[in-house]
Every structure is written in C-alpha cells, then in structure tokens.
Amino acid sequence: MDENIYIPADVPSGSINEYLNNYDDITMGSGRLMLFAGDQKIEHLNKDFFGAGIHEDDNEPEHLFKIAGTAEIGVFAAQMGLVSLYGTDYPDVPYLIKLNSKTNLVKTAQRDPLSMQLIDVEQVAEFKNNSGLNILAVGYTIYLGSEFEHIMIREAAQAIYKAHQVGLLSVLWVYPRGQAVKDEKDPDLIAGATGVAATLGADFVKINYPKKEGEKSAEILKQATKAAGRTKVICAGGSSIDPKAFLQGLHDQIFISGAAGNATGRNVHQKSLKEAVNMCNAITAITVYGKPVDEAYKIYRGEGE
C-alpha cells in the first residue's frame, strides 16, 4: 500500500476501506496508475481499430478484453455497455467505467464539444453489485473552453462526489477544446486543466502532453503536475509511435515531470495480442516498478522469456 494516499474528506467512514483497497489495486500498491484505455470505440469510431498499420485483430472488440485479461495493468477503461457484453468472460480484469462519451464526427468548427453522461454512478454501483465484476473507478471527460463546459464540469463534480461515497476512484479526462481554445496543448492551459480537476476533487486527471516551441515537454509538464496538487496527473498516450520512443517519453513524464502514470490506448491495442501484452507489461515495468527504459524495452521485445 502506498503510504502517501490522501483520503478525500468526501469518502464516508463506511467506504474508506473500499476506497483504499480500490486505490491499492488500481495502482498496484505503487501510487502510480497504468490505465489501458479502451473507450475509443465511441470516441474515435473505427478509424483507430482498422486500417494500415493496425493489426487485424483490433477490429474485434474482444481484442481489448483479451489484452486486459492477459497483461499486467492497473485498470481497463471502457463504457459500461461494452463491459456488460464481455466482462463476465474476463471477471478478473480491473475495470474503470467511462460515464460519458461522444464521437468525433462533429468538429469544433461546427459546434463546440459537449459530452454528457451516458449513465450515472448509482447505475455503475448497481452494475458492480449485480455482476460481481472488479470495478474500481469511474471516468469522465471535460472539454475545457467549450461553451458547454459548465454542463460537463457540474456532471463531473457530481460523479466524483457520488463515486467517493461508495469507495470508487475518479479519473477525469480534461482536454482544452472549443472555438475559444487556440492551442489545445498550451502549457498554461494544460496546467489550468489539472487545476480544474483538483478543484473537483478528482483522484487522477488525464491530460494531453503539453507542447511549446523551443521547450522540452518533460520540463513544461512540471507546471501541470504542481498545479494539480493532490490530484495525480497521467498523460494520454496519443497516436501510435515507435515503441522505444514511447517508453522513453513515458519514463520522462513520470521521473522528470512528476506525473503519476499514463493512459495508453492506440500504442497498445493496435498491435497483435502478444505484442500488445508485451507493451502493457513494459509500460507497467516503468510506471509501477520504476524500471529503466532499456529494461522495459526488452520486456516489449519479449527478450528473456
């Protein structure tokens, strides 16, 4: 158990043990989170699951569950409907239920983004009790800077409070996006996003890696990790890139910038099952166990098996 866990005051006494157990499970006792993101079936439609450079197995939704059920991960994030279809075949997977989602068909130039709840925390708690599945957390996306941000901010605040009431953890995806946002990866805006997550009481906040011309992202991310306070920062994995470069970036985010983990989707699930599992295990080696990049890369390559 990580000795630095801060128990939020909105976790009632009767739910503290559940909260602590879920926190310990989701971070594997390290205080850092390896989140395998499987929520893109709505967010990105099928573009990220079929096409050039993507393994043919990725077009089948069960590929996600096979990876999550085989690899060493902290939590697998997906919508409740998908979990309800496959979860009973993978009962030992640690799950995060994503409460809201939207497709990417309507672009910002047409309308500012709005992603409202598909389900609420009470329904997740009921689903957990009825199914017996290992549900540890809920997640919610806020598009900061959208003209509809007030709706998402309120829904997120309500979800976090209700999740803590039943001992579930909360992870916010907070992305600056909308016609008022000129640069979605501006360091000041990214730091503002983590600060918003902190004011809402989130346990973790997922953000995009900030970028600024002439500066190193690993250095400028420090602003965001400090602005988050007791809310822990994890970075989105982004589009698939060279595996070693990905692992190096992940290592820098944690051990230079002070991030507390990562949320990786495409850099995992677009691979074959064996390669995806190896990639998850390599990510966990860095995130949870603090292994150096070269050692993690050997795990990805399957060396020493």
The CATH superfamily label reads Aldolase class I
Order of strands across the main sheet: 1-2-3-4-5-6-7-8
Radius of gyration, in Å, reads 18 Å
Please identify, by name, the CATH architecture: Alpha-Beta Barrel
CATH class: Alpha Beta
Q: Which strand-content bin applies to the residues?
A: 5-15%
Mean pLDDT: 96
Counted by DSSP, the helix tally is 12
Largest sheet: number of strands, sense, barrel closure:
8 strands, parallel, barrel
- Overall morphology: globular
Low-pLDDT stretches are none
| Number of DSSP-assigned strands | 8
Number of domains as seen in the coordinates: 1
Distance between the termini: 29 Å
The helix-strand sequence is HEHHEHEHEHEHEHEHEHHH
Under CATH, the topology can be stated as TIM Barrel
Specify the structural class.
alpha/beta
Could you estimate the helical fraction of the residues in percent?
A: 40-55%
